[in-house]
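Researcher: Let's try something more involved. This one mixes different molecule types, so please make sure each is placed in the same coordinate frame as the others.
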Amino acid sequence: MTTPCGSVAASTTEKTALLVASGADIDELLTNVLASEGWSTQRVLDNQHILELARAKPFDLIITGRETRVAEDVELLRKIRSARPHIRLIILTDKFTPGDVISAMREGAFSYFSAPFEPSELAEMVRAAMAEPCWDDGIEVLSGTPEWVTLTARCDLATADRLVQFLHGVRDPSIPEAEKDQIILAFKEILLNAMEHGGHFDPSQHVEISFIRARRAIACRVKDPGKGFSLEELRHAAGSSPDDLFTHAKVRDEQGMRPGGFGILLAKKLVDELIYNEKGNEVVLVKYLPAPKSPTT
Amino acid sequence: MGLQISTRESGDVTIIDLRGRATLGDDSDLLIGHLNKLVATGVLKLLLNLADVTQLDSSGISAIVGTHVCLRRQAGSLKLLCPRGRVRAVLRLIRLPEIIPTFEDETEALASFRPRGFSAAS
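Model: All components are placed in one shared frame. Result:
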């Protein structure tokens, strides 16, 4: 699991980010976001300059340029982390392969954005990186092939957001974007349920996750560290009464719970199958993919 | 962007303009707190402008449904305005617009709060 986070750059008073140019729009966005929190920025031309500077002194955040291949960025990260294990590095890239996300997570990238991406989502992730007083990974890849990835994720919201962004970064032309969005949203709902109800958002707890890519389907398995529950007994979740959106709201109100309980309902609508184990602490989501188009003759 | 909330009024309708993410955590807590506060102060007609909401999850949906239930109990009403992209897709998926009136045009939405037969000129 993860090690306690260090304070390599946390001791410095002024925060500094090291950036590689990524085009005028992205450069301006990043400068504005960083400046709004009083951070200074240092710009360099390429990864080689990043490595030299990062070895010479600690930086609080590094953001790579879009022009380099992910494999180069990951190699850069590996070299920097050998000297500065808690460095926060965000990969931006126009040059990627479907398996690059696994390498980035395995090597401990803070986040990963493959083009095209929403600038507002990049800005949000930079703010998240800036907000962390100190940082260690929270995501550990236990095994990874392009077809099957198993990892653990720490039970906190920031880790969930980071993991979801890694999934958005997967660009596999054989997975239609609409289906990808649906399974990511369903996965996020189930992940947050697992972290909240199974792990009580306790950062010492971890959720175990597997992603399996078959030819005509994607499956996600989420196992939480809790004791489980019975869907039949869970009257405060809308998934137990999908035809009545409001029944559970009354039940939750009676039980003094905060508004909520739509996660299972939403996930059920977004994927084709949602299967719980007997204990109720492990769930599998399955999304079937449309048949690939036959090549024209 | 974290959720930003601003409030304005048009007659007896309170319009809440949301900007950013309405998702689990500080954002949905902020939204729930804001909506609860308005309802507690006696607001009965609420129009929630979702045009600039970039993400909505079950937590944001819960805030909307909870407010709708609460206002109905007091003979008030909640209506939604201009959900876009993924937000609109999520709302349609759970068929919320079939229960909570949803509009594309603000003028039309405001008019819907007036009693039937009411004319501004009368």
